[in-house]
Amino acid sequence: MIRSAGARVAGVIGWPVDHSRSPVLHNHWLARYDIDGAYIPLPVAPENLIAALRALSLLGLRGANVTLPHKQAAARVMDRLDPGAARLEAVNTVLVEPDGTLVGLNTDGFGFLEHMRSTFPAWQPDRGAALILGAGGASRSILAALAGVGVGKLRLSNRSEERARDTARVVDGPVEVIAWPDRHQGLLDAALLVNTTSLGMAGQPSLSIDLQSLPAHAIVADIVYTPLDTPLLQAARARGLAVLDGVGMLLHQARPGFAAWFGIEPRVDEALRQAVLGR
Ligand code: ATR
After folding, report:
1. Nearest to 155 by CA among 228, 205, 213, 225
2. Which residue CA neighbors atom 11 of ligand 1 most closely?
3. Which of these is catalytic: 8, 62, 71, 87?
C-alpha cells in the first residue's frame, strides 16, 4: 500500500495486460510485508514499448515485469542482460538501476526449477530423460533451465518440428527433437514430462499422450493453470505418477523481481497461491 511519496512502484507491461495475475501476486506480498509500495498494470501497445521501457526510469519506477507479446522485443531495449536473458533473447523482469540503466532478467526457468525443488525436494535432475512438449517461450526457458541443472537427456517435441529445432538451439548440448506424431516414444526412460503447449487450457483441446510407457518414478508437469487440474495431470495422477501444477512457476518467477524492487525476499505459500488463483 502507498503510505508516502517515497513509495516504491513497479508494474507489469503487457498488451493486453488485464489477464495478468502479476498485480494480484505482487500486491499480496506488498500487503503481507507491509511495504510502502505499489505494483500496477501497465498496458503498452507494441509500437510504444521502447518509449515505455525508457520511461520507467524517468517516472521513478523501480522496474517492471514484461509479459506477452513483449518479452523478446524488451530484450533488445535493455542496456544490460543477465546471462540467462541473453541466452533466451527474452526478458520477463526489468530492473531500473539508480543511474537509469535498464537490466533485463529472465526468471521463468528459475520459477520452474524452484517450483520443482520446493514440491519435490528429493528431485534429482540427472536421474533420467526429460521430454518437453511445445516450443514457445516457456519451452525455451524450461529447456535451458533443465540443461543448466544437469538433465543429461533432453527431448523436445512440437507440432511444428522446425520451431522445435529452433528452440533446441538455446541449449549448448544435444537436444533430441522428436516428431510430434511420435511424441509417446519420448516417454521411455523419462523421469520428467513437461507440457508447455496450450493444449489442456480451458477452451482448447486436451493433450493426447499415452502415459503408459512413463516409468513409475516419473514426474508430470503442466504449465497450463487454467484449469489448474488439467486432463494431463488427472491422467498422470490416475496412473499414480507425481504431478507438478502450472501456477507454481508463475509464483516463483516473481521472486527475484520483487526482492530487487522492494527489498524483501518474498515467500511463496498457500495463501499466495489461493490469492493468485482468485479463490
Ligand atoms: P508460449 O506461451 O510458451 O510462448 P506459444 O508461442 O503460445 O507458447 O506456443 C504454444 C505452443 O502450443 C506451441 O508449441 C504450439 O505448437 P506450434 O509451435 O506448432 O504452433 C502448441 N500448440 C498450440 N495448439 C496446438 C495443437 N492444437 N496441437 C499441438 N500443439 C499445439
Report:
1. 213
2. 197
3. 71
